[in-house]
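thought: fold this chain, then report.
action: predict
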Amino acid sequence: MKELSEAKGAAGQALGGDFAALFGAEAWRRLVAASARVEISTGAVLLRQGEPAQPLYFVESGSFEIVDARSAPETVVSLVGPGQVLGDMAFLDRAPASAEVRARSASSCLRWQRSELLDLLSGQPELAISFYRALASASVLRNRALQNAVMIGGFGVARPSRVDREAQEIRDLADHLAAELDDAIGASPAGSPLVEAVRPWLTSVCRWFSGAGEGARAEEVGAELRRKLEELLRSAATSAMLLDRPEGRPAGPELLAHVLRGSPAGDGEIGEALDRALLSLPTPRGWAWRDGATAAQLERVLDGPARRVLWISLNGPCGAGALAALVASQAARIDLLSLEPLADGSGAQHLDLLALARGAPPPLAAPYDAVLLDRVCDLLPEETLRAFFAWSARLLAPAGELVVAHAVPAEDHGLLDHLLGWPSLPRRPEEIQALLPADGQARTLEPVDDEAAALCCWSSS
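observation:
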């Protein structure tokens, strides 16, 4: 029995992936050089439940138990072994550790203190992007490994009753939605009550995810949602694009184009109704508001024959929306930079952040009357973003303006992060303003409703 349990644990660890393998050799060498190697004896506590701002660890050898110490008796939630990271969720969101991590055997780890690692990443933007992508991928892979191990019999330890209760809540919500949809279809062939049947259920699910906090809980209980409702979710265009994305990658620009068009689409009445409800969530509405508000700001800046704009985006121009239409009509006056390499003909130049950090910026027609940072804030950590703001401000002409379009926290954020498998970084307007250069003034444009977006417009003093 012991051998079977250990074999299942090893299978889970293998499925969890190797964090180091997600980097190139040089990037991993730089991270290791910035770490400290620590030896942990059997039974020693590595991370304490409820304590904030703890280090990030990479397990070189040995194994650790993830323990929920709040229950009596305490529950071992999962095992973590070589190649995996510990403390990643607390590192990403600064929340207190949601469980205790205890050495199951004598172990060796690499340790990064949070402040020291952030200092390293702030000076090496390309490494920062690789690091955050690897951390997101490692977290997703480990959580899915936990889910798979539970499905084949677990690690030989107790499954927490809390997860069972929450999984049942998701099943109950799914069953309730199915009944509501049956009633709505029978009541109106035209499908008008369908959205009203979907929206309360979707609101309940978003509320659950917004309070889930710890990633393993959201992943495991969210798996119940997928198992119960995947066919329904795939019937709506928005959720189908999220579910069908390549493993470990964020949804592509086609999803953003669909949201900006704002035209619900799906398989039949139910698919279209679900898509309409998804598009009415705060974050998708925020994307659409942000696009229109940004285009309006840039039109104001471009009110003159010789004025120029630099647009820096996560993955280049999108094929729909007010901003893309403005760029198409004013292409000669707007330079495009993309943080992601794009295919030829996209009209955008790749911005190599590593070259930028080394003092080799791309050739630009500076100064600009405005620099737009579009979706950049949803990706970069604080210190890297601060440096990025400072570089962008130096590209401005006198009285020029830095326009920062960003997401803000919303109730649906947890659900969308779960579906994308990618931890985005929504920030409140005051957090963005605190990162902008001190020698200027900032004002924030916010939507009148609860859309999850904002525009921060900064100008030098």
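thought: worth noting. The longest strand covers residues 396-407.
final: tokens above.
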